[in-house]
Write a sequence for this structure.
């Protein structure tokens, strides 16, 4: 498995479109900042950064390890790496990859159905579904829990892998 991690990171970076030319980039170790997104894409890279994103963001990318990121709203959220904790408001699409990441957000509610895509192992995702949504879970030992906003339908779910838990929170 250790030999596969660089390939997984490379594939994840390519699929997430990391390091966009026009994104607000926060890169380093142990940085603590409040950032107004001003509608732009935001990338948080490195390790152990504590970032509070305010306002409406474009795509929020969190890559690395041990980050703590909060956000109010983003068009999308892409979390990859290890042991990142991301808590926020609404995102139309959420991607969680690699291992031991914890994500809490409101999914969907825009015009198109919202989508969660998770892969890797041992990720924890807690969602409030704000409209039609699709949950795609691949890998092993993930826990995806969800509740619905008033009027939101149950999600469409596809899953593969081993020992994944996908359930409505009581």
């Amino acid at each position: 498995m250790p030999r596969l991690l660089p390939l997984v990171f490379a594939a994840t970076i390519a699929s997430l479109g990391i390091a966009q030319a026009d994104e607000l980039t926060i890169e380093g170790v142990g940085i603590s900042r409040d950032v107004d997104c001003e509608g732009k894409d935001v990338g948080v890279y490195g390790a152990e950064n504590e970032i509070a994103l305010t306002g409406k963001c474009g795509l929020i990318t969190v890559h690395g390890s041990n980050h703590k990121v909060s956000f109010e709203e983003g068009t999308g959220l892409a979390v990859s790496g290890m042991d990142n904790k991301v808590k926020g408001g609404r995102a139309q699409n959420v991607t969680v990859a690699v291992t031991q990441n914890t994500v809490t957000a409101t999914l969907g509610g825009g015009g198109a159905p919202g989508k969660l895509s998770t892969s890797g192992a041992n990720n924890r995702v807690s969602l409030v579904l704000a409209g039609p949504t699709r949950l795609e879970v691949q890998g092993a030992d993930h826990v995806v829990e969800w509740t619905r906003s008033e009027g939101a339908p149950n999600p469409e779910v596809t899953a593969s892998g081993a020992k994944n838990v996908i359930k409505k929170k009581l």
In short: The helical segments are 5-16.
